[in-house]
Specification:
The protein is of the alpha+beta class. It contains 8 helices and 10 strands. The chain has 3 domains: 67 residues, wza like domain (wza like fold), CATH 3.30.1950.10; 66 residues; 199 residues, Substrate Binding Domain Of Dnak, Chain:A, Domain 2 (Up-down Bundle). The relative contact order is 0.15.
Length: 399
């Protein structure tokens, strides 16, 4: 193959992938097992404290600084651990149960340099490969060293392509259902991309199946909220009854105090016997005891109502957090699949491990030579793309 045609094909293939990647929806990841040291910015929500909720950037030492709570080091923590730490800190400060959620807004980037169109930082997501990073950097450019006329090609079977396409179709249908559930929409709209990938009839069939799942899940959530609402209504009715009883007892106490005082005065003047005055005092004490018991019952019911109201918020919050997590995972998967599908559709794209050499600089100078196009990258990695005659870029790791 002519050398110019080869590099035109490579540039065309990676350019189409890059365009697709640019148009992809950004992913907000909340994978709770992901160590936060790889993150750059976090979204923290504290239930009941909107003034403390918001976006926080992780500093060079791995710290975030929050008003009231202070500086928190997130090094070595995952999202679940940080959520517990913040919840405990809120409880310690306020004396009330705290609930925090943590999401990763952005990770530290990967840096791509060498034989790519746009050297520099590219956004990292879990599972980012060398091939995807090169695509995000604009694709390959022609190296200065000589090339063989016949580069090797990546063979892709129809069965493998079909498996990847089916996975993408299922993911698109599932995320449509999850987004409808998050919006509490009763029906799922068929995404245009699903019709394009699967065809009109297959897309309708998939959405009908997802609709059954949506109805079941929304019915379950509504049942939980309805049970909570019934319990809260019953508790409010009981509270109203107890408050009326307290009002009645307050009136009886006032009247009985007047009677007891009058009997005590008459007893002192010898008009009534001492037993009569004591009986009036006993009746007053009995009514006051009933009032005390009523006040205790009122406090108990008020506490129950507060718990039920908090429970309603927790049910909705847990459902929303779970949906956000599932959606972010699928968005990441769809994004990665779309790049792979674009590569597979480009018959002209060729890959040669003899012509193009990938090297990964990690942890301040540790170099992984001869990385494969499917090798996964980590945040802050430096990917050096060169031809087969390139020297090992030891200086890159020192920068």
């Amino acid at each position: 193959m002519n050398r110019r045609l080869l590099y035109a094909a490579l540039a065309l293939g990676f350019s189409s992938v890059f365009t697709h990647a640019q148009n992809a929806t950004p992913v907000q990841s909340r994978v709770t097992t992901q160590v936060l040291s790889k993150a750059d910015r976090l979204l923290v929500r504290l239930l009941g404290y909107p003034e403390l909720s918001g976006e926080y950037r992780i500093g060079p030492e791995g710290d975030i600084t929050m008003a009231v709570i202070g500086r928190v080091n997130v090094s070595g923590l995952d999202a679940a651990s940080l959520e517990k730490l913040l919840s405990d800190r809120v409880t310690e400060i306020t004396g009330k149960p705290g609930k925090a959620t943590v999401e990763v807004i952005a990770y530290k980037p990967v840096f791509v340099t060498g034989l790519v169109e746009n050297s520099g930082a590219v956004p990292w997501q879990p599972g980012l490969t060398v091939l995807q990073a090169v695509a995000l950097a604009g694709g390959l450019v022609q190296p200065t060293s000589k090339l063989n006329d016949e580069p090797g090609s990546v063979e892709r079977s129809d069965a493998e392509y079909r498996k990847l396409l089916d996975d993408q179709i299922r993911s698109v249908a599932t995320i449509a259902r999850l987004k409808s559930e998050r919006a509490h929409a009763p029906a799922i709209a068929i995404p245009d991309i699903l019709t394009k990938l699967a065809g009109k009839d297959a897309a309708q069939d998939l959405i009908q199946r997802e609709q059954l799942v949506l109805s079941s899940r929304m019915g379950s959530l509504d049942a939980q909220l309805a049970a909570n609402a019934r319990a809260k209504t019953a508790a409010n009715d009981e509270l109203h009854r107890l408050q009326e009883q307290r009002t009645l007892l307050d009136g009886q106490i006032e009247q009985q105090r007047s009677t007891a005082a009058e009997m005590n005065d008459l007893q002192k003047r010898g008009v009534v016997r001492a037993e009569t005055a004591r009986e009036a005092a006993f009746r007053l004490s009995d009514i006051e005891e009933k009032r005390t018991n009523t006040l205790v019952a009122i406090a108990r019911v008020q506490s129950l109502i507060f718990s039920l109201e908090s429970g309603e918020t927790v049910i909705k919050s847990d459902s929303s957090s779970r949906l956000d997590l599932d959606i972010s995972r699928l968005e990441q998967k769809i994004f990665q699949n779309s790049i792979e599908l674009e590569i597979w559709r480009s018959d002209t794209v060729k890959q040669s491990e003899f012509l193009i050499r990938y090297q990964i600089v990690r942890n301040g100078g540790v170099i992984t030579p001869d990385a494969k196009f499917y090798s996964e990258l980590l945040p802050k990695d430096v990917l050096v793309v060169g031809d087969d005659g390139s020297s090992t870029p030891s200086a890159v790791g020192d920068k």
